[in-house]
Design a protein that fits this description.
The complex is a heterodimer. Chain A is of the alpha/beta class. Chain A contains ten helices and six strands. Chain B is extended. Classes of the chains: A alpha/beta, B mainly alpha.
Amino acid sequence: MDISQSIGVIVVLVFIGLMVFFKLRIRAGVAPHLRPIPAYDLIRRQLGQAVETGQRLHLSMGTGGIGGVDTAVSLAAWPVLSLLADPTTSPDAPPIVTVADPTLLPVALDAVRRAERHSRMALPRDAALLVAPRPLAYAAATGALLRDQKPLANVAMGAFGPEAALLLQAGEEAGAMQMAGSADPLGQAVMTVAAGAPTIVGEEIFAAGAYLCQEPSHVASLMTQDVWRMVLIGAMLIGALLRTLGVA
Amino acid sequence: MKRVVPTALAIGVGIITLLGLFLDQPILVSLRFAFVDWATILAVFALLIGIGNIFSVHLSRLAGRNAPYSAALLLSFLAVLGVALYEGAGPGGPWMTALFQYVQLPLESALMATLAVFLVLAGYRALRQQRSVGMVILIVAALIVLAAALPLPGGLSGVLAGLKEGVVSGPAAGGARGLILGVALGALATGLRLLIGVDRPQGG
């Protein structure tokens, strides 16, 4: 095992250890205060309104897939998908879940089938849909779908680049409430301008489980990320200080 | 059983793959490569499910008001498939290359060109809807970067180029790096949650 592999093992073990520690503390009743993220409040409101009005909600899982570099980002929308499939939170109207990569389709289909089992009625075939594998084609075709279906809300979470502008413009034209988040800085910048609503910024995309489902494991992983962020900031400050002082 | 088996399989495969990355044991390394190969094969099956999904959705729409679009999609799909099978050279055959070069590429370029228009409109709309300091900074920075690309007279071009360089290499690069670091931590946390079975997108 070389030095980088050893560091990797230590990081993973400490990360898991901290997650377990924080989860045990949460179970013991030491619940942390999560700062408000307006975009997640918006999703919760959108879900509530979809339940009340019986209108459809569109969830776009982005242009990434499972198995590539975008795996974690592509699965960031999974807590939202779980809420759509949950009998206590899911709207009566069937959701529309669109993906660009076929490897995400089984995940979307599984959630839609769970929603179908809970609602005990057959959902339309377009409830989970592979639209197009290339980002621009996906955004343009999903935009056409939004203009046609006019959902109550358009939630875009996952791997998005500048093509997100096409999707969000269509959502705006369809009169949908919008909520968007991407891990890519370029996609993020485009979404901030085009969404017309608060967006999920950077790593907030991975906090959906903690904010929407209040899952102790998700909250614990969020607290672990915060600890590591502090460690990284500290390391960077020490590095900058040492460099300034001329230490090689 | 339906919940336990997929989760146990996912955790087992994940742990072995991770150990194969960290430990130089030949058996673990071989297993890691085998799992990655299996993932590639499974991705092909996912593609087949995707094709089935596209077909089933658009066939069901042939009776609706969007029938012409669905019919065009299905016919285009069958035509491209027919060309590929006739050529027998996969996606690299001359006809397939021509289809990509003269149909797909120009269409995507046209879409890309419209993005700029959409973004300008969205920027104007955003400035009206969200009058925050952050939004004003974002729009001003975008205008500086855009204006720096214009062939302006006199020393104005040089001033704008300097401003652009200051924006791009300073606050923009710093902000992007901060985002990327946070995203890396989030991705690590998501991966570990999958590994210990907290998140189960595999349906268990």
